[in-house]
Each structure stands twice: as structure tokens, then as C-alpha cells.
Amino acid sequence: MSLQYTCVDDIDEIVKTSKASFEERQVEISKFKSPRSQDLKLRLEVLKSLYYSVKDHEAEIIEALLKDFKRSKHETVIMELVVLYNSILQYIKKLPQWIKPEKIKESSALFMFSNVSVDRISLGSVLVISPFNYPVLLGLEPVAAAFAGGNSVVWKPSELVPNTSRLLEDILTSEVSSKWLKVVQGAVAETTRLIQNPSFDKIFYTGSTKVGAIVAQEAAKHLTPYTLELGGKSPVFITEHFSQSNMRAALKRIFFGAFSNSGQTCVASDYVIVHESQIKLIKELSKDVLDEFWPLLNKETDYTCMVHETAYEGAKKKLERTNGTKVQPSNVAAELSKNCLPPTVVFDVEWNDSLMKEENFAPFLPFVTYVDLDDAIEKVNHYHKNPLAMYIFSADKHETELIMTRVKSGACMIGDTLVHVAAQDAPFGGVRQSGSGSYHGKWSYSAFTHERTVIRQPFWTELMNGVRNPPYTPSKPKMAQA
Ligand code: NAD
């Protein structure tokens, strides 16, 4: 299916209308006795309409993703829809609390008799740009967060999943008010026009580090604030002191992180750094675990493919070039679905291997061995600094702390991989090359609001203000310090 792109010349007008809708809404709610209560009511309404627009069309969404890249039905449910529902429901539940000004206990004596609070106010009209790999969750979770913050949204879904992007546009334009949401379809030209528009009050971008830098440059021209959720190579450490009795379970957790969505996951376990004393057991167990996960891999298996032919060809070449030893499940059919690559564990890999250059974003999992942990840490920091996530399998607390102290990462899981994405009350985001800013839970609300300090001053304190007012006589500095 080809996707109808929005005409580039219409984009500025769409942005203008989105901004105008926000401003009109502010005027409307200001007419109510309690503008905040009215604002809350409208935000809850739009969040509910977003929730039901997805929930009521679940089967069609699963089908669209299947058409786009043979996305596993099970993965669509557990890795996109359930997580999205939980997030929207959490926003609906917590919003009445979040929208209230937060009272501050100010320690400066100057405000001893003041009423100090932080009011998280809407930003205005925000741009959300999303990637192809989890197009429902990574598109609509920020959209929901922006709604929770009271903003109007222009959403640019990914052009690489045309069936899903078209379907979501159709559903949302009929079920969510256009005063809250506008959808712009397109690729580089359309996104460029959007990010060059000076009217946005925020850009929330999820995608590659390379494009993230372009977004940041354009945003800087108008001082538009942004959140960048980017990529990177997330390492897994299996250290000398990890208990061998847990190795099979560990491999299951690591393979789940590496091969879900055929490796097309920003926080995939991208490569494993393993102490040489552990590699023998890992080699013995790996084939077994692959066979347990995929007793048969053929066209009928519920297994995701690469997003398009270019990604497929690029990944295939990368795998052909590796000098490592490849291990795949035992029963892989000779003919798989179009653009499908089997899960492949690769042993005996060196740091200069084709699989160790950039984010793999394919179902490959290279293993490099180390002897000296300091040396392994230096290699990570030299080749792939500031990953989006890091995973540690170690039974030694000090060893774990040592890695965590020396390797900066967006997130860190000890004893598992990938599932931290579903944590609802913890921030999700990268660090430098892997992103800036975060969202999820109350961090989503912060990402889409401005923290305005509000101080109410009583008048009965006027007598005490003598010290700050002219004339500045020699005794005044002493009074101020008293
Ligand atoms: P991408 O950067 O190619 O595309 C993302 C969005 O940017 C799309 O909507 C696309 O139309 C737009 N875009 C592409 N090139 C552009 C350009 N030159 N100028 C302006 N806009 C442009 O990313 P992708 O291939 O869709 O997704 C994969 C990448 O995203 C991986 O690097 C992955 O790690 C990252 N990612 C990060 C997260 C996260 O939460 N941190 C989540 C998912 C994916």
C-alpha cells in the first residue's frame, strides 16, 4: 500500500491551525468559573477518545502491522498495545493530581509569609515525530502525554509502515477532535518542513541519532525546546561472577531483548561482552535456547521481518561479512517470508567486526569475550559511548557498581533486558548520543508542560519591605543581613 503524503505546501497552514486551536481552547476555558476544572475535563475527554480509538480498532491495527513488516501478532499486543493502554490509563488516573499546582515549602526567609507553588502549564502546539519500529506505542504514547499536558498536537508517523500510519490517521481523524490532533504524513521533505516551522512550542522526536541531530539543529534556530529519544548500541555484560546456574535463564532474557521485533528495538540487547570463563557454557546452551524459542521457523511462524528490502539486504551483508561463528535455530525453513532473517547468535567476535560498528537493528547478537573488566569498559566507552540502555548479569555487587559507575547509559537493568520500557513510574530516555530528556509516568507530564513558579504575596507584610526599598542608607545592608 502506498501512503498519501501531506502536500508540503499545506503543512504551514496545518501547524497554524493547530496553534490556533490551542489558543482558542485557552480563551474558552478561561470563561469558566474554574478554568482548571474545565481544562481537566477536556483533557480527560480527549485521552479517553484516544484510548478507545485504539482499543476499538485493535484487530485492524494488528493486521496493518502484519501487512507492513509481518510484525508478530503477539509482539504487537504485548510490546505495543498493552503498554500503550497502561500508559493512557495511568495519565487518566493521575491527571487530576498532576494538574493541581504543587505547593512548595520555600526555605528562603524572604518568602516566609508567601504562598509559593509550581504550576505545570501547557506548552501550546507540539510536534511529535515517530519511528517505524513500534509505530503505535512510540507515536501515540507521546501524543497521549502531550494531551495530558493540555497541548494540541501535530503528529508525523513513520512513512516506512504505510498501512499502520494510514489506518491510524483514518481512525484518529474520525475519533479524536482535530482541535487536539492533526496528522501529517510524509518522509524527509514533509518532516523537514515541519521542523523548520517556528510556531511549535516543543518537538518530541523519536528515531535515529543521525536524524535527531538534524531535528536539534532546526529547533535551535527558533529556540524550540525538544526531547530526543534516540538509538545506540546497548551492551550486555555477563561477568566472571555471574552464577552459571542462572545462565540458561539469563540467555532467555538476553535473547528476548535481542530478537524481539527481529532486533528492530531501540533498547535491544545489541551485543554481549562476556568474561572468557563463561563462554563455554554459553556456547553449549545457546542453540538449545534458540530451539526452545523457535522449534520451527518458517513462513507460518509468528516472527517479525525486517521493515523493508534495503534494511534486509544491508543486514544480510553485515552478517555475511562477520568473522564470527554463527548459531541459528536448528529448524529454519529454506524459504522464509520476504525480508525475514533468522535469529542469529554470533560467537568469537572481535571489536572491529562488521557487527560491532553501529546499532545492529537486526536479529543478530554478537558475543565478544574479555579477560580484564577495566579493558572491556574502556572499549565500550571508546566505541559506543552513552548507550540508551545497559544490561548487567553479575552476582557481584561491587562488579555491578563498578560497571554502572564507569559506563553512562540512559537506563540500566541488572538481571534482565528491555522490559524497563514498560516501567510506568520511572523515566525513560537516553543520555547525550542516545537522547536528551525523558518521558513515561510523571516525566511525560513534565516533558509536555512548563513549570511555572507562582508566588502570591500578602500585603500585610509591607512594613517588612523597607529593607529592599530606596533610599539605600548605610544601615540598610546590616538590616538585610539581620
Ligand atoms: P529515523 O530517524 O529514520 O526516522 C524517524 C522519523 O524521522 C520518521 O518519522 C522519519 O520520517 C523522519 N526522518 C527520517 N529522516 C529524516 C530527515 N533527514 N530529516 C527529517 N526527518 C527525517 O528512524 P527509524 O528508522 O524510523 O527508527 C529507527 C531508529 O530509531 C533507531 O536508531 C532506533 O534506535 C531509534 N529509536 C529510538 C527509540 C527511543 O525511544 N529512544 C525508540 C525507537 C526507535
Description:
Belongs to the aldehyde dehydrogenase family. The active site is at residues 229, 266. It holds the Pfam family Aldedh. The chain is of the alpha/beta class. The protein folds into 2 domains: 8-231 and 440-452, Aldehyde Dehydrogenase, Chain A, domain 1, CATH 3.40.605; 235-408, 3-Layer(aba) Sandwich (Aldehyde Dehydrogenase, Chain A, domain 2), CATH 3.40.309. 42% of the residues lie in helices and 15% in strands. It has 15 helices and 16 strands. It has helices at residues 11-30, 35-55, 58-69, 73-98, 137-148, 162-175, 188-195, 209-221, 247-259, 279-293, 309-321, 373-383, 397-406, 441-447, 476-481; strands at residues 102-103, 115-122, 125-129, 152-156, 181-183, 202-206, 226-229, 235-238, 271-275, 325-327, 344-347, 364-370, 389-393, 411-414, 435-436, 449-456. It has a 7-stranded mixed sheet with strand order 10-11-12-9-8-13-14, sandwiched between helices. A 6-stranded mixed sheet has the order 5-4-3-6-7-15, sandwiched between helices. β6 (202-206), α8 (209-221) and β7 form a beta-alpha-beta unit. α3 crosses α4 (73-98). The radius of gyration is 26 Å and the shape is globular. It starts with 10 loop residues before the first helix and ends with a helix. The mean pLDDT is 97. The structure holds nicotinamide-adenine-dinucleotide (NAD). Nicotinamide-adenine-dinucleotide binds at residues 129-133, 138, 156, 158-160, 187-188, 191-192, 206-208, 211, 214, 229-231, 266, 359, 361, 388, 430, 435.
